[in-house]
Design a protein that fits this description.
Blueprint (H helix, E strand, L loop, with lengths): L1 E5 L3 H13 L3 E5 L2 H8 L7 E5 L7 H10 L7 E6 L6 H7 L4 E4 L4 H33 L9 H15 L6 E11 L1 H6 L2 H18 L5 E6 L2 E8 L4 H15 L3 H4 L1 E10 L8 H18 L3 E5 L7 E3 L4 H5 L3
Parallel strand pairs: 1-2, 1-3, 3-4, 4-5, 9-10
Antiparallel strand pairs: 6-8, 6-9, 7-8, 10-11
Helix pairs in contact: 8-9
């Protein structure tokens, strides 16, 4: 672990460096607050700082307060050292943001104890950061399927739409899938079996898309996809999604499942449309599919209010007329 030593007194700095080095830490010595701040702003900066109270231009107290105002991801352990014997000196250092206080001349036993404390505090901080990161990741992932949940997925689609709005050649394809288990299946299998079905299905669907595309568990039995592609690729992607779903669940009569797939084509100039508005369109398509006894439909999002429906089988031919 690296230890930053900030002291303008050369002899005191050398003594501190020797002690720190003898304790198997790597000392980095500077003689001013400005040099210390420059080091702290670089990647891999030291997590422990030993600083002198009395320095020219910027004192250790002022430097300590400045470091705390930086709100670094890992707050360094700051050890203030001084020859000041005033009984209020330690309180002043702690109030400025120092974690501990050590008197000059520094001795090895005291320094070892202080650095051990600093190392424990830094380790605790890092463990909390890792735990918080894992928690944040969990909050973004559907606990059953391991893909993005509704909240994080809609944010990801919004970001993808924002990128699409800056494109010229590509279009966006938002696909809304509703995989319906039959009543017989619901009544004869436990909840754990349903989860297993959706885990397998999510894995299959995630394999269809590229790493840059978005796959989301929107509701228990509904999935969303967003991909950038050219006009000739939309039908192919829709067919691949349909095949992936029906590979294991070919029909409601045979396997107790059926699917509805709504595809919405979005041009770059339409990409700033709110995701909620786009989902209103896909919900309408799914409702119409259910009413008409169909399984899949592609719709090209128009600039006007009236939506133009394109038959799935005729999509390629119709593209030239849109």
């Amino acid at each position: 672990m690296k230890v930053l030593i900030v002291d303008d007194a050369e002899i005191d700095s050398l003594i501190c460096q020797k002690i720190v080095e003898s304790l198997d830490y790597r000392p980095i010595a500077v003689s001013s607050a400005s040099e210390a701040l420059e080091i702290l702003q670089k990647p891999g900066a030291p997590d422990i700082i030993v600083m002198d109270w009395f320095m020219p231009e910027v004192t250790g107290i002022a430097l300590c307060e400045h470091i705390r105002s930086m709100h670094l991801m890992v707050e360094p352990f700051i050890l203030m050292m001084t020859a000041n014997t005033d009984r209020h000196a330690e309180a002043e250092a702690l109030n400025a943001g120092a974690d501990d206080f050590i008197s000059k001349p520094v001795n090895r036993i005291d320094m070892e104890a202080k650095l051990r404390l600093g190392r424990r505090l830094i380790k605790t901080q890092l463990e909390l950061l890792v735990a918080n990161q894992k928690l944040q990741e969990k909050l973004q992932i559907d606990a059953v399927t391991g893909i993005m949940n509704r909240q994080s997925g809609l944010k990801a689609i919004s970001s993808a739409l924002s990128r699409l709005s800056r494109q010229k050649q590509k279009q966006g394809l938002l696909v809304h899938c509703h995989v319906r288990l039959s009543h017989e299946k619901h009544s004869s299998f436990m909840h754990e079996v349903h989860d297993k079905i959706y885990i397998q299905l999510a894995h299959q669907l995630a394999q269809i898309l590229r790493q840059s595309d978005v796959v989301v568990r929107f509701r228990d039995d509904e999935f969303l996809f967003f991909a950038e592609s050219d006009a000739d690729s939309h039908q192919n992607l829709m067919q691949r999604i349909e095949r992936a779903i029906m590979r294991d669940y070919p029909s409601e009569d045979e396997e107790g499942a059926s699917s509805l797939i709504a595809g919405l084509v979005i041009r770059p100039e339409q990409a700033m449309t709110p995701v909620e508005n786009l989902l209103q369109q896909t919900e309408i398509i799914l409702s119409n599919l259910h009413a008409d006894g169909k399984t899949a439909e592609l719709i090209s999002l128009p600039a006007q209010r009236n939506t133009r429906v394109v038959d799935f089988s005729d999509y390629r031919r119709a593209q030239g007329k849109l």
